[in-house]
Amino acid sequence: MSPRRDPPRVTLKFRLAPWPRAALWGRAVLAAALMLQASVTQAGGVLRTGHPGEPDSLDPHTSVSAPALIVQNDLFESLLTLDARGRPVPGAALRYTVSADGRVYTFTLREGLTYSDGRAISAADFVWSIRRLADPATASTGLAAWIDLLENGRAILRGESSPNSLGVEAPDERTVRIRLTRAAPWFPAIVAFPVFAPLPRHVIERYGRAWTRPENMVVNGPFMIQSWTPGQAVRVVKNSRFHAAASVRLDGVEYVSVSDQNTGVRLFLDGRLDTVTNFPPEKLDDLRRSRPRELRLAPSLGVTAYVFNHRLTKFRDPRVREALSIAIDRQMLTTKIVRAGDQPALGIVAPSISALPASGTTNGGANGGLRRTAQLERARTLLRAAGYTTARPLEVELLYHTSEEHKKVAVAVAAMWQAAGVRVALRNAERQVVEAASRQGDFEIVRAAWFSPYPDASGFFAYLRQGSPSNAGAYENPQFEDTLERSARIVDPAERRRLQRAAEEILQRDHAAIPLYHIVSRRLVSQRVIGWQDESLSAIRPARWLDLRTSVEGK
Fold first, then answer.
1. Do 376 and 395 contact (CB within 8 A), yes or no?
2. DSSP one-letter code for 272
3. Exposure on the CB side of residue 32, measured as CA atoms within 13 A
């Protein structure tokens, strides 16, 4: 499917989609609960965790979804791994050193590493796998942008050089050396992700794309795949050949697909799920009263944003982008709809690592300190200047993936845009459909959740870098690119932070995207679960650090 571009287009009359009837909603919840009952009633040493949707792939080099990354993190171990608090610690590599200029990382592998089928793992397996990630033929997704850090990575991603020229080598069977184009203090956090794991060459070359089927899949992490029932659950069991198997307490994990958040809450309250990722905001007050010990709210390195398709002429006009952004009352979204402590956002970078002053991430900052009536008038003025009138209004389509929360936010934002004279169409689809549309550029404005995998602003900038697979909207700004290129060459932390602040300010002035609010993670975690950490540098909670109690007294 080709990226969405300008007309010719058919002119349609748009209206907002109606809310689902209560009876249909109730039957849908009941049907989903009954369908999942068989896969979530087991207990014992199996952690049952609910996630919105299911993996798009279990291949770390070709997947894009959060559910996929969560499962992959338990199936594979990279050179480094994440501890319970999301910090990079030794993984398949026992130790590593960094050169004085910060550009060469040398990893020493543990002795006796094997895959789940018993085959030995050597440094050459890491080299082959990392080259596969960089190879354009693999069709790697957003995380492949990290290859740009490696020597010759950019040329390989552009098809100008062979993957064999990538800055990764194996001097001997237990040594992996990675050469970077520039110093990157956050690189250890990147190396802890599954994309840098030693994917099994002998299996991939034998089965091709079918290598991730449960009957074929071979891994090197703390768990290995047992089964995958589409639309229901992925099940993994402990990998006895994992080098630290003795420290893994769980017998297995069930990653249950729960696309409806209300269903997830019901399954959790009924004791059929041990953890739930996210739940409807309207449940928050009840859960605070009924399950205070199991309600987990924590800041994250994430932002909810609406992404423009800059391929379309109307969104190349900065007045249109500013009008759509300034018309949104972010304070209302966070206090009346999301209601979990999410912070209204002006910039895309999380407040905890942003170089901007704190006031720059408030709703006042996002709307220039204007009152609501002034916001709307300013938005109308900008749209008139861009050539739009009551007779010829700006028409936009907003795409979001199916979720009651996302729907409520979209309906509210659509009403705000309509108040500014914009004609709005809402389109929702399943997560995988939306992700595919984002990759293919088949949208006008699409909802996105952007997370940085490490506590540095560069993790957020990747979503708007020219040529980055993560840049779904095809945003381009030479000044932004030049600023980031200069910051990448700077060693002095203060000067680097100054340049990052300049980059953030460019994105704000340009209204490159519409940041809505900085995300607070909302989870339900049973008191049976041992080892859960609320405060973490990562959205992932690796199952290898968790355990289950056999009984819990009280609630």
1. no
2. S
3. 23
CA distance 393 to 387: 9
Q: Determine the pLDDT at residue 467.
A: 82
Residue pointed to by tokens 């420290």: 247
Rounded Cα distance between 51 and 259, Å, is 7
Task: Please tell me the pTM assigned to this model.
Answer: 0.80
Distance CA 145, CA 289 (A): 44
> What are the phi and psi torsion angles at 276 (to 5°)?
-135, 130
DSSP 333-395: IIIIII-SSPEE-SSSS-TTT-SS-GGGGSHHHHTTT--HHHHHHHHHHHHHHTT--SSS--E
Ranges in the chain, pLDDT < 70? 1-44, 139-145, 358-370, 551-555
The C-alpha atoms of residue 73 and residue 81 are separated, in whole angstroms, by: 9
Do the beta carbons of residue 451 and residue 10 sit within 8 Å?
no
Q: State the pLDDT at residue 432.
A: 83
DSSP structure class, residue 114: B
Exposure on the CB side of residue 404, measured as CA atoms within 13 A: 20
Tokens at residue 376, please? 């709307």
The dihedral sign for the CA sequence 36, 37, 42, 45: positive
pLDDT, residue 143, reads: 62
Rounded to whole angstroms, what are the CA distances from 302 to 49, 188, 203, 402, 537?
21, 20, 35, 19, 11
Domains of the chain, each with CATH number or no CATH: 76-206 (3.90.76.10), 299-520 (3.10.105.10)
Q: For residue 450, what are the β-bridge partners?
A: 303
DSSP states of 47-78 = EEEEESS--S-S-TTT---HHHHHHHHHH---
Query: What pLDDT score was predicted for residue 15?
Result: 32
At 53 the pLDDT is: 82
